[in-house]
Amino acid sequence: MLLSTFQHIKGIGKKTELALWDNGITTWEKYIKNNGHQLSLFEKETITTLNESIKAYKNGNLAFFANRLPRSEYYRIALTYPQDTIFLDIETTGLSLYYDQITLVGWSIGRKYGVYLQDQDEAGLLEALNSAKAIVTFNGTIFDLKFLQKWFPDIYIPPIHIDLRFFAKRAGLSGGQKAIEPKIGYKRPKLIEGMEGESAPILWYKYRRGDKASFKELVTYNHADIEGMKWIFDYTIEKIYDINKIPNKIRSKPKFSKFNSKINWASRKPKKKNSYRASCKTQRIECFFGF
């Protein structure tokens, strides 16, 4: 959908963009070809920006669009790169950025699900973020990303960030993630059905005392958060299409919920003296226990 976007151009808003689409100008190249030799100053500047846009797109320079496109339209970039969009959720010992700690970070790109656990190797997490073109969170602006940036001062966060807490409100979905999910048909696994965020720290402390079952619940809870975000993202995009009257010829079908990841549990000792080790193989995560 990015190639049909014009709102990153100075002077073009929603109404002008819709007018362009209605007149058959559905891509950057069509706009350039449609204009003759006698151009107004605005048209010249527009074509210059579009040529820069084509170059930035080919070079994968998404910072170019992040600096020009309204944040409300960032979802279009994620739609353009669905396999390179990372869904991320953290678990902590509490809500205080100053007194509490990250216990677990879960993420999913495509059908892959990965986990970072406190005091373990963060290479997988950093690699996933470095490879992502867009990031999706629920309340990440206030919570997840702030914790990550404190925990890992040099961490890279993709410039294209869609926070579903605010994005979903545009589709009439308010409240927390657990309140939204039943409204759109997403069901959590029975193991963690009805579990709220307050349970995550308790499960963590139980795990630290050697309770393997609590660890499984914690990872399952985190994984469900991430899969639920994919459903919310798809649902909200479809609603925004209708609200903004975006023509069918422009719409890209959201399929993030189709990229469902799975947890593959493996009960065997890790090679190193770690209480936990995770590695993504065959588009799944393997969790190794060793106490």
Helix content percent band: 25-40%
Q: How do the strands of the widest beta sheet line up side by side? A: 3-2-1-4-5
List the secondary-structure elements in sequence, H or E: HHHHHEEEHEHEHHHHEEE
Percent of sequence in beta strands? 15-25%
How large, in whole angstroms, is the Cα Rg?
21 Å
* Separate helix tally: 11
> Uncertain runs with pLDDT below 50, 5 residues or more?
268-286
How many individual β-strands?
A: 8
Reported for the largest beta sheet, the result is: 5 strands, mixed
List the helices and strands and how they pair.
Layout: H1 14-22, H2 28-34, H3 41-59, H4 63-66, H5 75-80, E1 85-92, E2 102-109, E3 112-117, H6 123-131, E4 134-137, H7 144-151, E5 161-163, H8 164-167, H9 177-184, H10 199-208, H11 212-243, E6 262-265, E7 276-281, E8 284-289
Helix pairs in contact: 2-3, 9-11, 10-11
Commentary on this structure:
- This protein is α/β, with parallel strands linked by helices and 291 residues long.
- The chain has 2 domains: 2-69, no CATH class; 78-289, Nucleotidyltransferase, domain 5 (2-Layer Sandwich).
- Helix content is 40%, strand content 15%.
- The chain contains 11 helices and 8 strands.
- It has helices at residues 14-22, 28-34, 41-59, 63-66, 75-80, 123-131, 144-151, 164-167, 177-184, 199-208, 212-243; strands spanning 85-92, 102-109, 112-117, 134-137, 161-163, 262-265, 276-281, 284-289.
- It is elongated.
- Mean pLDDT is 89; it is low at 268-286.
